[in-house]
Amino acid sequence: MKLDSKIPSGPIAQSWDKYRFDMKLINPANKRKFKILVVGTGLAGGAAAATFGELGYNVETFTYNDSPRRAHSIAAQGGINAAKNYQNDGDSIWRLFYDTVKGGDYRAREANVYRLAQVSANIIDQCVAQGVPFAREYGGTLANRSFGGAQVSRTFYARGQTGQQLLLGAYSALNRQIAAGKVKSHTRKEMLDVVLVDGYARGIVTRDLVTGKIESHVGDAVVLATGGYGNVFFLSTNAQACNVTATYRAYKKGALFANPCFTQIHPTCIPVSGDHQSKLTLMSESLRNDGRIWVPKNKGDNRAPQDIPEQDRDYYLERKYPSFGNLSPRDISSRAAKQVCDEGRGVGSTGYGVYLDFADAIGRLGKHAIEERYGNLFEMYERITGEDPYTTPMRIYPASHYTMGGLWVDYNLMSNVPGLHVIGEANFSDHGANRLGASALMQGLADGYFVIPYTIGHFFANNPVDKSVTTSHPEFQKAEQEAKEKINLLLSINGKRTPTSFHKELGTLIWDKVGMARNEAGLKEAIARIPQIREEFWANLNVTGEPDSLNMALEKALRVADFLEFAEVMAWDALERDESCGGHFREEHQTPDGEAVRNDEKFAHVAAWEYTGVGTKPNRHKEELTFENVPLSVRSYK
Amino acid sequence: MKLTLNIWRQKDKNSKGQFENYNLNEVSPDMSFLEMLDVLNEDLLHKGDEPVAFDHDCREGICGACSMTINGRPHGPEKQTTTCQLHMRKFNDGETITIEPFRAKPFPVIRDLIVDRTSFDRIQQAGGFVSVNTGSSPDSNAVPIAKVAADKAFDAAACIGCGACVAACPNGAAMLFTSAKIGQFALLPQGQPERKERVIAMVKQMDSEGFGACTNHYECEAACPKGISVEFIAMMNRDFMKASFSR
After folding, report:
1. Beta strands of A378-490 (E only): which ranges?
2. Are residues A388 and A518 located together in one domain of the fold?
3. Domain range for residue B150?
4. A319 and A257, same structural domain?
5. What pLDDT score was predicted for residue A376?
6. Average pLDDT of chain B to the nearest whole number
7. What is the pLDDT of residues A387-436, one digit of tens each?
8. Confidence class for position B70, pLDDT limits 50, 70, 90
9. What residues make up the domain containing A230?
10. Is there a catalytic annotation at residue A32?
11. pLDDT digits (tens, 9 = 90+) for B189-226
12. CA distance B189 to chain A (A)
């Protein structure tokens, strides 16, 4: 299969402007003849749906939550990057582009990243105009802070709740379009399948989570903005309902899944406290602006942190990466934490934790300044752990947080299935093998506000839509039937184990074998083990209740069923990518001091996987990556 | 810890609900309240019973999905804490805990502890936005905003839309929720052009949804997991009066 990324030719700095001009337009009076189905109402989906509505398209949105406002974008804490250079510290579009390509360990598409950096400034303007209350200086201008992987302050923030404020901004824009009748919002409806007619994505099948009703929805294009698959690890910083179903069903219908092994393990999360744990809570990366990370120098040093003198502490990030120190990128910081814990120098009852210490910053700036910056995070930490981080250092450990992999898309953010567009975390395109902090909000909003609204018009202009297709088309009927059969099957197994127990078993396996460090033997073991778990799931699952009512166990079972198939694709990708890059660390490929070693000759490409059946190895396709503007080099933060 | 749970069970909107008793024997003080319910639900599934349905998602106190009243208090006993962030160390061994859905006429029960809060969305749709299309915004530093104003707007914008304020109010009023959005925009220059229309439209929608009126009990502020101040209600009332007379 030939993957056409549709990257425009010519100098990168002009390519988006030129491409925008070259794209065909839909005249305003004709836009209302098109209907777009947007699945997911987080930053990407909410922003896209609102903008489509403003442009005059008819839009329907779908979310499994009770309100579009509850999408998990809301939980992003630290901030959003933009190349505004308000701090006069040397930032530029080019620098943000460069940092992002380098931060992604040279596995992202240059053209997409450049466009992202270009529109980043518009995003901030747009959000401010919506009334998003970003942090400000006393003079009334916007404030910034630094994030990992950058040496400039380009991160805009709203206390520790930036995602919430940006999402509420997009939600307010969406509400305006709902009130105007341009957007119809479906809540508590989960997408179970995408429907293709004559090769085009023409609709979706959903389950009403209250009545259990299986319904079809037809449109002229489908936009998936359904987030990432971080919950494949069971424990993650994702919300409970986050799942892979929408993107995985699209994959089963022929869309390619790109780089599924690129997952981000975030270095600063509250460590696991026991078996009951249902999720891990992130402590924003912004804390690393003022917190210092350390472990005891010596193994088995069980003294309380306050009793360990300076000379017995190892500030390992500052020691190993003096120029970026505690603000080293996420993949590197996470791996370093794992290393010191594997050496037996971890802290806390499980030994899987490191200190994030604010004593120096409190001494230097005073408690009040720290409280102003991170007050809500400190409170959250205290509520969860029962410890006061103003007096005792926080304990943190890496956890699954974000997935760079996702459905393959071209420069138009369309998958290889015509009409099926994928935006935000659900696609693969901008972060390569590692995402920098404060870049997820940027990408979600860039895709939703400033990219897809243009490119979807180009798609409509070039592809005449068969208006005679309705939900009574046999393809819709077939997809509905399959969904119903699957549900009835799940309810009729009557086995002994709960959906959660299978999710936990799968997650533990994936964390151990396809987690922060991977090797050939472990990956092969995972590939052998996953089908066994899947087999037991379909033989020994217990789901109570009825298909036609609100049924939490059934919702969970449907999601776990897809994770159980998807995990295998992830493991195959990790096995075949025989190099270390970004968040994908293959133990076979490292320097003597444990740094990742890329293999650009063989792996400077996107791996896009094609479905071939459950339990059979998918086909691996390649999109070669070229680096004409940011020359390939060893990524160093030393 | 050993606990007795007294939980509201209701099959659907049209059924009559009732409290049921459950015993849990091995509750860790490090569990969150929802993790304690997870344990109960796993038990129920093993017994072939249906789990207790409750809304939840982010489990870090920001999405506003969780909506239960614990021992008579929305989100339970800890100040400025959502149910998902409440931990079992705040309870005592042997305690009986009563759990019911947020109660208010405009929040009909969907099942067990899940209520329908779409009335909140409709209030926002009535005017909880600045009418600005994508792409038509000036540079973000073109309009300076005093830090004090931005901070105060943020205090209002911190609302997570959970509905605890309504559940806590003896009148079932949604004044704190509605005033938080109105207050956020009223404090910012971006909100000025539509200020009057906004307050009128949102208050009207709020009333038509069947929410009660404010009689200054301040229960809403006490229950609000984000500590939003009743000051915003006063501000909304002032704005509403002004807007009503100047039309």
Report:
1. 394-403, 406-407, 420-422
2. no
3. 117-130+142-245
4. no
5. 82
6. 97
7. 999 999 999 999 999 999 999 999 999 999 999 999 999 999 899 999 99
8. very high
9. 12-265+402-462
10. no
11. 999 999 999 999 999 999 999 999 999 999 999 999 99
12. 8
Q: Are A509 and A552 within one domain?
A: yes
R_g of chain A, CA atoms, integer Å: 24
Q: CA–CA separation, A65 vs A480, rounded Å?
A: 21
Collapse the DSSP code of B134 into the 3-class scheme (helix H, G, I; strand E, B; otherwise coil) and give the result.
coil
Q: A92 vs A88, A153, B212, CA distance in Å?
A: 10, 11, 52
Residue A438 binned pLDDT confidence (cut-offs 50, 70, 90): very high
User: Exposed (0-12), middle (13-18) or buried (19+): which is B1, by Cβ within 10 Å?
Assistant: middle
Split at pLDDT 50, 70, 90, the class of A149 is confident
The per-residue DSSP string of B186-240 comes to HTSGGGSTTHHHHHHHHHHHHHHTT-B---S--HHHHH-TT---THHHHHHHHHH
* Contact A146/B at CB under 8 A: no
Catalogue the E-assigned strands of B27-154: 68-70, 73-74, 96-101, 109-111, 114-115
Residue type, A271: P
The answer on pLDDT for B247 being more than 80 is no
Residue A55: strand, helix, or coil: helix
Based on the fold, state whether residues B155 and B99 are members of the same structural domain.
Answer: no
pLDDT for the residue numbered A74 = 97
- A171 lies within 8 A of chain B by CB: yes
Q: pLDDT by residue (tens digit) across B88-116?
A: 999 999 999 999 999 999 999 999 999 99
Question: CB of A429 within 8 A of CB of A109?
Answer: yes
Name the one residue in this structure whose structure tokens are 């036609």. Answer: A548
Token pair, residue A620, equals 């691996």
In the numeric block, the tokens 């429907």 are attached to A195
Q: Are residues A427 and A360 in the same domain?
A: no
What secondary structure letter does DSSP report for A415? -
Among candidates B48, B53, B62 on the partner chain, residue whose Cβ is nearest the Cβ of A164:
B62
How many domains would you assign to chain B?
Answer: 2
- What pairs with residue A236 in β-bridges? A400
Which has the closest alpha carbon to A505: A535, A550, A549, A485? Answer: A535
* B137 within some domain: no
For the record, the structure tokens of A145 come out as 């802070």
Choosing from A202, A330, A345, A635, which is the catalytic residue? A330
Last residue of a domain, one of A413, A429, A462: A462
Whether residue A169 sits in one domain with residue A298: no
Distance CA A123, CA A55 (A): 17
Query: What residues 310-369 of chain A have any CB closer than 8 A to a CB of chain B?
Result: none
- Here the ipTM equals 0.98
Within A446-473, residue ranges assigned H as helices are: 452-462
Mutate to test the interface with B, among A59, A65, A70 (most CBs of B within 10 A): A70
